[in-house]
Amino acid sequence: MIPGSTPLAETAAKTSRRRHLLDFEGWSRDDVLALLDTTDVMAQVMQRTIKKVPALQGFTIGTLFFEDSTRTRLSFERAARAQSADVISFAAGGSSLSKGESLKDTLRTIDALQADLYVVRHQAAGAPHQIARWTDALVVNAGDGRRAHPTQALLDAYTFRARFEGFDGFAGKRLAIVGDVMHSRVARSNVALWTLLGAEVVLCGPRTLLPAELGQARGVTLTHRVDEALEGAHAVMALRLQHERMTRGLLPSLAEYRQRYQVTRKRMRAAHAGALVMHPGPINRDIELEGALADAPYSVIEAQVANGVPVRMAILYTLLVGSR
Amino acid sequence: MPTPDTLPHGGDAPVPRTVVRGAHLIDAHGDHGLHDLWLRDGRIEGLDLDGAAELEVDASGLLVTPAFIDPHVHLRVPGQEEKEDLASGLGAAVAGGYATVISMANTDPVVDDPAIVRALREGAARLGLARLRPAAALSVGLRGERLADYAALRAAGAVMITDDGIPVADSHLQRRACEYARELGLVIQTHSEDPTLRSDGVMHEGRVSQALGLPGNPAEAESIMVFRDCEIARMTGARVHIAHVSSERGLRVVEWFKEQGTNVTCEVTPHHLTLTDAAWERFDPVFKVAPPLREASDVEALRDGARRAVVDCIGTDHAPHTRAEKDRDALAAPFGLPNIEVAFPLLYTELVLSGELELATLLGLLQGGPARVMGWPEPTLEPGASADVVLLDLERERPVEPATFTSKARFSPWEGRLLRGWPQATLVAGRMAFRRASGAPG
């Protein structure tokens, strides 16, 4: 497109968050449910002998990982290639970003490669929003700072829907998230998504890792006691505890954290019958999660990883093709 | 105590005898109505005089008042001229109606050397734009370890001592700086934020920062350090000025000390008076400033403090950066925004026209307020006063257009905002230092 020739209507559409997946602002319950249905179709594709469809042939998807994350990048690239899209990859390590180039200038350079959609991972909250303002391409947030990780939340919700025995909708369901909520984009996105779907979310952690402001959202409650959080929960998500939290004065010791907040088989007895255990990975076994629990039959941690690909296939397909 | 101004402002050429005709005159002594204001040899000569003028300025329909004083600007000289230089920064100042500015010392190299102070003053005097009164560093290299040579810096023309940009973490050093500066009659200005509590915060800590997942900087980081700095002011008797108070609690601490007679003053910025942390919802680092934009209740408290004279003056904290630096992500972008060119129209439109603040109060915060902070004579239009005057158009509305800024930092949080009160001309020491192009829109 010739610069400056963007018609007004298109400019307005460009700023709409619904066109992108930056977070769940502007997404309705029906939008999300339709996406989960599309994911079912994609999951079937991934069961076939030949795991490839031509759905996105001719589209180019750029993965822009300003922050390293091999797992998430591979998951997106698999999702793109399984639909026959071309993939170009950018990783910040060794790029001119380290020489002080602005995010905007970096984006301009990459934009010359004319991708149709960018998958963006960045250590700063809001970087995908900034990029969405500066490009005509679509943007999928693959994790920005502590802010959002919407595809992770979607695969969590999808996994719950697929695996919870006798699933009859999200309304009345209770998700407990335990651990370092303050630094967690996974927690923030799951709060946004599950409350959008009509579920309740209980956030649990020590006061140093659980900002009171997060309890002001509708459908969200906070507690500092893990037994209270797990009481009647249909899904329990333990968050990864970063070791540097100890050095920054947020926690006294791993031993104390384990004792007070570890999700264990014993504590899971308070949860709802058939409750699932989830974890966004990578796991610190025997820290936030009792090691044996990760391998228990009601643990769906491996399914979460496997579902990452069909969920991301559904997102790429819906944004690139579904809306046109 | 003012340093004697030995350098002729704007060069050695004679200053033309000037008459500003049909001016509506207002100064600290009140509203004087319509007059011709005569200026001669850099001073106010008188009203409605006879004789020949070498320069006639038509001020019909304009308000004419003493030009403003800004106790807090970043001119980025020496060493960061890609952000701003003396011509662009002092040009921006006169375009904003300011005749005198105090420049901060957090440059590269730091203004901790008398030769740099002299060079700044000489460079500014040659330009003949706004008058420059440099601040010098509190600690050598802004490292917070050793006191700079205050007496030598003062002799070179420094009028204020501050490590602004970097809070002084060491309370012992702050105490000794205050004790030492007191006997020299220098003002100590403080950037009052507890660096450990502020931590890696890029915005105000609160509901918005938690929702946006950006690291927060709590208001208590300010109020705690304001308390320490006021307590050290009381303890040492030094003339301490608290820069850019941004929070309700910070301002309440200042008020508490003032009630006890402590010799402490404070300033607020145009952005803390008009913007809140909600601006961050677009993730635009143009809103990244230190201290951060706070909540609506804080803005209200600062406005109330301005009304009740708890706030002594407006300091813009004009802090230019390159566009590319502000186009980085929220964590990497630098703190600071340019505002000196829009300060008066912004505050006039948002505070005076909205009925929240009297025009006379706003003018006081820009004229007598900063003068009293510095121990300088109150700017007036009386015969003999320095001929620093600004012509303000309170009627015509025009949008903020960063592309037309004199500052090198051509971006603004108020871009497109329709404002009234734009300076049409600024005279400094009797010379025309700024005149808005007649073809300018609006």
Brief overview, please?
The complex is a heterodimer of chains A (324) and B (442). With 324 residues, chain A is of the alpha/beta class.
CATH topology of the largest domain in chain B, by name, is TIM Barrel
Helix/strand-derived category of chain B reads alpha/beta
Count of the domains of chain B:
2
How far is the N terminus from the C terminus of chain A? 18 Å
Order of strands, widest sheet of chain A: 7-6-5-8-9
Identify the overall geometry of chain B: globular
Assign the CATH architecture of the largest domain in chain B.
Alpha-Beta Barrel
Q: Largest interface by residue count?
A: A-B, 26 and 19 residues
Write the SSE topology.
The complex is a heterodimer of chains A (324) and B (442).
Chain A: H1 8-15, H2 29-45, E1 60-65, H3 70-81, E2 86-91, H4 103-111, E3 117-122, H5 127-134, E4 138-144, H6 150-163, E5 174-178, H7 185-196, E6 200-204, E7 220-223, H8 226-230, E8 235-238, H9 244-247, H10 254-261, H11 265-268, E9 276-278, H12 291-294, H13 301-322
Parallel strand pairs in A: 1-2, 1-3, 3-4, 5-6, 5-8, 6-7, 8-9
Chain B: E1 18-27, E2 30-40, E3 43-47, E4 55-58, E5 63-66, E6 68-73, H1 86-95, E7 98-103, H2 114-127, E8 131-136, H3 150-155, E9 160-161, H4 171-184, E10 187-190, H5 195-198, E11 203-204, H6 207-212, E12 216-217, H7 219-236, E13 240-242, H8 248-259, E14 264-268, H9 296-307, E15 313-314, H10 323-326, H11 343-352, H12 359-366, H13 368-374, E16 389-393, E17 398-399, E18 418-419, E19 422-428, E20 431-435
Helix pairs in contact in B: 4-7, 7-8
Structural write-up:
The complex is a heterodimer of chains A (324) and B (442). Chain A has helices spanning 8-15, 29-45, 70-81, 103-111, 127-134, 150-163, 185-196, 226-230, 244-247, 254-261, 265-268, 291-294, 301-322, and strands spanning 60-65, 86-91, 117-122, 138-144, 174-178, 200-204, 220-223, 235-238, 276-278. Chain A is an alpha/beta fold. Residues 1-15 of chain A have low confidence and may be disordered. Chain B contains 13 helices and 20 strands. Chain B has helices at residues 86-95, 114-127, 150-155, 171-184, 195-198, 207-212, 219-236, 248-259, 296-307, 323-326, 343-352, 359-366, 368-374, and strands at residues 18-27, 30-40, 43-47, 55-58, 63-66, 68-73, 98-103, 131-136, 160-161, 187-190, 203-204, 216-217, 240-242, 264-268, 313-314, 389-393, 398-399, 418-419, 422-428, 431-435. The radius of gyration of chain B is 21 Å and the shape is globular.
